[in-house]
Design goal:
Elements (H helix, E strand, L loop, with lengths): L1 E5 L6 H14 L3 E4 L10 H13 L3 E2 L3 H8 L6 H10 L5 H8 L4 E4 L2 E4 L15 H9 L5 E4 L6 E6 L9 E3 L7 E2 L4 E6 L13 E7 L4 E7 L3 H11 L4 H8 L2
Helix pairs in contact: 7-8
Bound molecules: zinc ion.
Zinc ion binds next to loops.
Length: 250
């Protein structure tokens, strides 16, 4: 079973299209969308429709905090994120909102758990940036492998599984397009980078290729038409900074 892990699309249709082309060329068994379909970018409606279409064809899609804010309002968000959500809400129709409201917080497959943010209180959207964040996530589930998005920064945290565990957490910064083997005696928290708004200094869209039988994950990077996505943001009335950051991946 090979899964495509797609997260933090953030209404960037150009990035999503490039990623889906790459996923199709790779030929996976299922797509798992880890949330944040909307927010920040200029194409929320078309991106929701594209994901709904994937779900119709057998994909799994999860709720992200920006998706939730599209129907609950931007409580507790940063000023830029809140501004983008206030811009997004009137762009969405009843069908888009109904789809976003239908999304679950988590998905299990084999010994893996998929969430937008963390296994630790996924509904509160904690960030898994450091070893202590990953430890809290591991403590909240028996799943051997946890897969999330949310930070927009690719990362892999791991620790020894079961009774042998000393609690020592190691972290690893994945290299683009290089498969990372997963040991059966370790637990992993894999943070997949963003499709539509990378923040690790690489402007290319990111998606994850998870081979459950081969026990490896590859963080794929795909170039896309950043110029076109940025121009749409500039012409939309969204904060200009949201266009500029796409070029630097910050
Ligand atoms: Zn996000």
């Amino acid at each position: 079973m090979r899964l495509a892990l797609v997260t933090d699309i953030h209404a960037n249709l150009e990035a999503l299209s490039a990623v889906l082309d790459d996923v199709e060329a790779e030929g996976v068994d299922r797509i798992v969308v880890l949330g944040d379909i909307v927010g920040y970018g200029a194409d929320p409606g078309p991106c929701v429709e594209a994901v709904a279409d994937l779900v119709d064809k057998g994909a799994v899609a999860l709720l992200g905090n920006h998706d939730q804010a599209a129907f609950l309002g931007p409580k507790g968000m940063s000023e830029t994120a809140a501004t983008a959500i206030r811009w997004t809400i009137p762009k969405l129709g009843d069908d888009h909102i109904r789809f976003l409201k239908s999304l679950p917080l988590a998905h299990h497959e084999g010994d893996a758990l998929f969430v937008h943010a963390s296994a630790h209180h996924p509904e509160s959207w904690p960030y898994v940036m450091e070893a202590s964040d990953a430890a809290a996530s591991f403590a909240s589930t028996d799943a051997r492998v946890i897969v999330s998005g949310h930070t927009h920064v690719p990362a892999l945290f791991h620790t020894i599984a079961g009774a042998l565990s000393t609690g020592k957490m190691l972290s690893f910064r994945p290299v683009a397009d290089k498969a990372v083997p997963l040991s059966p005696i370790r637990r992993y928290h894999a943070v997949i980078g963003a499709v539509g708004q990378p923040r690790d200094g690489d402007s290319r869209a990111c998606w994850g290729l998870y081979d459950l039988d081969g026990n490896e994950i590859t963080w794929r990077r795909v170039p896309y038409d950043v110029e076109a996505a940025a121009r749409k943001i500039e012409h939309s009335g969204l904060p200009e900074r949201l266009a500029a950051r796409l070029f630097t991946g910050r």
